[in-house]
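Slide 14.
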Amino acid sequence: MSDKVLAPETLLKQRKHAQKTAADKAAEKVANKKANRQKRQVIFKRAEQYVKEYRQIERSEVRLRRQAKQTGNFFVPAQPKLAFVIRTKGINKIAPKPRKVLQLLRLLQINNGVFIRLTYATTQMLQIITPYAAWGTPNLKTVKELIYKRGYGKVNKQRIPISDNRVIEETLGKYGIICVEDLVHEIYTVGPNFKVANNFLWPFKLSNPTGGW
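Slide 15: predicted structure.
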């Protein structure tokens, strides 16, 4: 008669299941690590490409300015396509029409700021809300600082800080926007998916300027 004690069948099944789960998790971890490494490489290449593109635009403008100066002409820069609008007044004593425009532009609170595409229609809207808002054309540095330092995304109608590229990829990945640099590029260049990218950005909550408005 054998002294060997056989483990219960249920215990063997539990051990087998635990081993399989551990193996699956290890394999998934390796796969995720590899995928993240590849993704980082893609993001790095895109960032390099954007830097080259921004420099080309800047050099082209400098060259055209010099050519115009040499020939005695005036350089007329291209019409800006992007504007940043900040609400400067509260809700008191606002006529219905400007109030509606402010709602359409998502400027619901004082010191809220949003990017908009400059067209004839939006320019007319800006004229209507001139007493209640201030606007200008932001440069690349301003766009980057706003998104990196004060950017929040709209995910399932919730305000989520853009602290991870996954927040962007999960919402805008299907449009080819997978990282903060993609988002900055889409906004700054007013790309084909500007509307989607801009709607993803929660209206910026800014502080009062020194001395007030």
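Speaker note: Residues 9-70 form the longest helix (62 residues).
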